[in-house]
Amino acid sequence: MSEESQERSLTREVQAVQIPSGDAIELPALTKVNITQQLGGSYTVMTPYGLARIDGSDADALGADLAAEQNAFAEKATEAKATLPTGEEPDEEAIWQQLKNVYDPEIPVNIVDLGLVYSLSVDPGENGGHRVNVQMTLTAPGCGMGPAIAEDAKSKVVLVPGVDEAEVNLTWEPAWDQSMISEEGRMILGLV
């Protein structure tokens, strides 16, 4: 999708998350929205009520073209997960790549390149599969979007073949600062 915003009318009522508070909001059918960011399978939209994040599972409310994109993404993830034999350890690089599909809805840089992911570990799960534990932070401790971003990260990690469950924990130690942004992230943000 281009950097330009796209005006659309919602085809049905949709649940969204208000930015930056993180509060749930219900957007009625026919509400006019401008898509300001489409990254990582979710949509940041400007509404008459302010900025909101719409989950990719509700892409159909934004139009058939976006719903088709989301369906293709979901099918590809399901096929990839089915190809790994049960019990095989997941590819850690694939987990990091999935985390690169998670974005703060106000910043066009993924959480890995923003330096928000401090660590991840892959451990044996209870049912013979694998559990991934992610430690991450946010750009500011008061960010109301923390639970939504953490849940998005979790939902992306469990798409990786071999991952049966994931836990994403928010931590404030060490405190995040701009020096943690990768070179690629700095370029996207115009900091270089």
Structural overview:
The chain is an alpha+beta fold. It has two domains: 6-69, Roll (SH3 type barrels); 85-189, GMP Synthetase, Chain A, domain 3, CATH 3.30.300. It is 24% helix and 29% strand. It has four helices and nine strands. The strands form two sheets. Strands 1-4-5-6-2-3 form a six-stranded antiparallel β-sheet, with no helix packed on it. It has a three-stranded mixed β-sheet with strand order 7-8-9. The longest helix has 20 residues, at 64-83. The protein is globular. The mean pLDDT is 89.
Strand order of the largest sheet: 1-4-5-6-2-3
Give the low-confidence spans: none
Number of separate structural domains: 2
Helix content: 10-25%
Do you know the CATH architecture of the largest domain? Answer: 2-Layer Sandwich
Distance between the termini: 24 Å
Structural Rg:
17 Å
Which outline best applies? Answer: globular
| Total beta strand runs | 9
Give the oligomeric state of the chains in this entry, treating copies of one chain as homo and distinct chains as hetero. Answer: single chain
What structural class results from the helix and strand content? Answer: alpha+beta
